[in-house]
Amino acid sequence: MTRMRQTLLVSMRGIRVLIRQPAYLGITLTQPIIWLLLFGALFKAVTQIPGFHGGSYIDFLTPGIVVMLAITSAGWTGMGFIEDINGGVMDRMLATPVWRGALNTGSVIYAVLTIVIQSALIVLLALALGADYKGGVGGVLILVVLAGLLGAAFASLSNGLAVLTRQRETLIGAVSAVVLPLTFLSSALMQQSLVPAWIRTVAKFNPVNWAVEAGRSAAMEKIDWGLLASRFGLLAALALLCGVFATHAFSVYQRSL
Amino acid sequence: MSAAIEATELVKTYPPEVRALDRLSLSVQEGTIFGLLGPNGAGKSTTVRILTTLSRPDSGSARVAGLDVLADPVGVRRAIGVVGQKHGADPEATGRENLVLQGEFHAITGRELRERVAQSLERFGLCDAAERQVKTYSGGMQRRLDVAMGLLHRPRVLFLDEPTTGLDPEARAEMWQEIERLAAEERMTILLTTHYLEEANRLASQLAIVDRGRVVVAGTPERLKSDLQAEAINPTLDDVYLHHTGRALRTANAELKEVGA
Fold this sequence. Notes:
heterodimer; A: 257 residues; mainly alpha; 78% helix; B: 261 residues; alpha/beta; 6-stranded mixed beta sheet; 10 strands; 40% helix
């Protein structure tokens, strides 16, 4: 009970900032909006390649952009802890009997909430651009949940990395190095049957692809429950694992003090 | 009287080969203000970090409020209040929100928490600023909030790491009064680190001078001064410091700044 309260209070720190400065949300959305418009225009002709299933490219692309925004947005989560460490907030929190898990979990809850709001806005924008959500509201919700789950894993990774390295530059480098390759090595932008075999193989182990494929199946196509169940399970396990890593990072941080 | 803080032979080395603490020992009696005096880098903050369970020593042991810092860190955290060198408050949150969070971290909730927060804001003159974000506070106000947060759960032992560094003389005088009041009225044990001799002289009933990770001398300010009667007429703490470390405190700090730059 105390642990849950403490977790929610930690997440309130971020949520309050979001409420006080909602413009921040808009700034972080510019990138996915540009991707949606740019990739949408750039790869429009993809649908004409023989072997491409389905209708318009915007239908294909939207789940990919939602997942891409989830990992980018989540990637910056650790910045908060770097600020906390530099400002003395972290040491003050660690000198209290607060449950250690609350620090990462609270921050992840805030990150996921941000992703859910951002995803909803991108889904609406794509709708305006002509996306056809065959899976209906339920399908879109599943897509957002999967993006949130993947975001939770990446937010924990970001927090762990932030606490271990305490450097903004490392985090910026990591996000830049990870987001595009993971996106290109998935079916976010391009149908798997049209990419080289080695990319297909790598994509099988790519969590970004787990979220994209299952999310696309739910929101845009005829839902594949078997695929959804297995990808959901994998993503949940990954999120849990990353959460344990991030929480453990706090004790490594303390040992270095 | 028993010891509220007892550190024995603490050793802490930072890679590659910085020996921050070199078998440092100290003992602080319950209900007293203990001053840890020394230049930057002498090991004061490392000592505080170990005693407040933020860091672990390579070897040695320490007990705070009767609890072992290595065996029962959570118990120690419940018993202590910490005011660090840096501001510990969340700049994006208001003063009240910071106090509430601090209380919740100590598992104080509901009406009890609301009352304590209100009292705390009143006592530290932060009522008018309670709903303002901390980033709009002056240095003195932030410092008062730091102390308010450190005291909210009524700790038995309070750690103040350079509590007046960066404060203007007026804010410093206020802080000194508050610290004296805490020790006198609430019988709180306070460990205070400082590199201001004047501060140590005024507040601490017991002093330890730390240099290069060790306590070079400890005792009451009066005794430390009277020990030097043979060498100087009316010795000051400055003289005591010079005698035991071979450097004037101001010079020592300046040297360190140069090394740092």
